[in-house]
UniProtKB/TrEMBL annotation:
InterPro entries from the UniProt entry: CHRD
Signal peptide location: 1-19
SMART domains per UniProt: CHRD (SM00754)
Domain CHRD: start-end pairs: 18-138
UniProt key word Phosphoprotein: no
Name under which the protein is recorded: CHRD domain-containing protein
Keyword Signal: yes
Keyword terms, alphabetized: Signal
Length: 372
C-alpha cells in the first residue's frame, strides 16, 4: 500500500506545469446501488487542451474492466461524458483520450465536483468503485442561482410554468451545467445546455424539457465563463376558455450569484386573502439555501403601523427550498391581512428570500424582491 501511495504522490508531483489536474478518491460505498465494499482507489485526470491523460490506481479489486467519467453529483446515477477505454494491468491503468470536445472540457473544469469517475469490474459491471472529481474550478468560472423552477398546478385553476433564459457574455460557446434541487427534498438532477458565443438560450418549460419533471424547486447553474440569465414564471392559460381573463402575465427571477445574496432584508407590499374568496391577493414567501451547510431563516410579519403580527424561524438544510403561503408559514394570524410586510434575517450564512403576490381573480403574480 505504501508503494501505491508513493506512486500516486509521485505522479502528482510530475504533473505538467500549466495543465489542469484533477484528483479522485474512489471507494465502493459511493456507487449507487452498491459497489465493492472493501475496495478503494485513487486517480488523477490531467487536461491538456482537448487531451485527457489519466492514471488510475485501485486496491482490493479483481479484474477491473474499464473506467468512465460521468456527469452527476453524489447519490446520482449520472450520464456518460467520457469513456476512458482504460486497460488495467493488475491494479493500474494509464492512458489518454484525445479530442474531448472543448465545451465538455470547459464544463468539467468549471465544476469538477459535478462529475465522477467510476471503475467497473467483471463482477460489478455497473460500478465497483466511484468518486467525485476534486480540484479548483477553472479561473473565470461562474455560478448563478435560480431560486425557482416550476411546473405545477396552483390554486383556483392556476397552472404555473417556468422558462429559463441564459445569455453568454463571452466570445466562446459555453456549456452550462444546470443542477436542479426539488423542493420535495428528493435527489437532485443535472443537465447541460449550450449557449452560443454572445448569444442566448431559451429553454421553455425548463423542468419538463431538461428533467422530464413537474413540481417546483430551485437550481444552480455553472459555466466556465461569464453569463447572466432569468427565470420567467407564469400562469399558463393559453387555450383556456374557462379561466377569467386568460393570459400569460409573468413574474421574473434574475439569476443571482452567491456573493450577491444578503443576510437580512424586508419584503414590502404584501397582502393576503384566501384564494377561495376570489377577491384581493394572496401572498407567498419563497426561499433557497444554496450553501453546503444549514442556515436558519428568521421571519417576522408586521402590520403597516409596525405591530408584530407573527414570527417564525425555519432551519434550512443544504439546498433546501420551497414556496409557502404566509398562512402556512405563520398560521391563522395572517389568514386575512391586508398591507403588511416581512422582515427577515439569515444566520449561519446567506439565502435567497423573496415574496410572490398572486391576484385571486386573474391568477397573475408579481415578485417581491427584498429591500436591504
Amino acid at each position: 500500500m505504501k508503494k501505491q501511495v508513493f506512486f500516486a504522490l509521485a505522479f502528482l508531483a510530475a504533473a505538467t506545469l500549466g495543465a489542469q489536474t484533477l484528483t479522485v478518491s474512489l471507494s465502493g460505498d459511493r456507487v449507487v446501488g452498491g459497489g465493492e465494499p472493501n475496495a478503494s482507489g485513487f486517480a488523477t485526470l490531467e487536461f491538456q487542451g482537448t487531451t485527457l491523460n489519466y492514471t488510475i490506481l485501485t486496491n482490493g479489486l479483481s479484474q477491473p474492466t474499464g473506467a468512465t467519467l460521468y456527469l452527476g453529483y453524489p447519490g446520482q446515477t449520472g450520464t456518460v461524458q467520457v469513456d476512458l477505454a482504460a486497460s488495467f494491468t493488475s491494479n493500474l491503468a494509464t492512458g489518454s483520450v484525445s479530442n474531448v470536445p472543448e465545451a465538455k472540457v470547459a464544463a468539467i473544469l468549471a465544476n469538477p465536483g459535478g462529475y465522477y469517475l467510476q471503475v467497473a469490474t467483471a463482477s460489478k459491471p455497473t460500478g465497483a468503485i466511484r468518486g467525485q472529481l476534486q480540484g479548483e474550478a477553472l479561473s473565470g468560472s461562474r455560478m448563478l442561482i435560480a431560486p425557482v423552477l416550476a411546473k405545477v398546478a396552483g390554486q383556483v385553476g392556476t397552472n404555473f410554468l417556468s422558462d429559463l433564459t441564459v445569455a453568454n457574455l463571452t466570445n466562446n460557446e459555453l456549456s452550462v451545467t444546470v443542477q436542479y434541487f426539488p423542493s420535495s427534498g428528493t435527489a437532485s438532477q443535472s443537465a447541460q445546455i449550450t449557449v452560443p458565443a454572445r448569444g442566448q438560450r431559451v429553454v421553455q418549460d425548463a423542468l419538463g424539457t431538461l428533467f422530464a419533471a413537474s413540481g417546483r424547486g430551485a437550481a444552480i447553474l455553472q459555466a466556465p465563463g461569464a453569463l447572466v440569465g432569468q427565470v420567467r414564471v407564469f400562469n399558463d392559460q393559453r387555450g383556456s376558455t374557462s379561466f377569467p381573463l386568460p393570459g400569460t402575465f409573468s413574474q421574473f427571477f434574475t439569476l443571482t450569484s452567491l456573493e450577491d445574496l444578503s443576510t437580512s432584508g424586508v419584503l414590502l407590499g404584501l397582502s393576503n386573502q384566501p384564494a377561495a374568496t376570489g377577491q384581493g391577493f394572496r401572498s407567498n414567501l419563497g426561499y433557497f439555501n444554496p450553501n453546503d451547510s444549514a442556515v436558519t431563516l428568521h421571519l417576522a410579519a408586521y402590520s403597516s403601523d409596525n405591530q408584530l403580527l407573527a414570527a417564525k424561524s425555519v432551519v434550512l438544510p443544504p439546498k433546501a427550498n420551497d414556496i409557502k403561503g404566509v398562512s402556512e408559514l405563520f398560521g391563522a394570524a395572517l389568514n386575512t391581512q391586508s398591507e403588511f410586510f416581512v422582515r427577515f434575517t439569515v444566520s449561519g450564512g446567506s439565502a435567497v428570500v423573496f415574496g410572490s403576490v398572486v391576484d385571486n381573480i386573474t391568477g397573475d403574480a408579481v415578485t417581491i424582491w427584498p429591500q436591504s
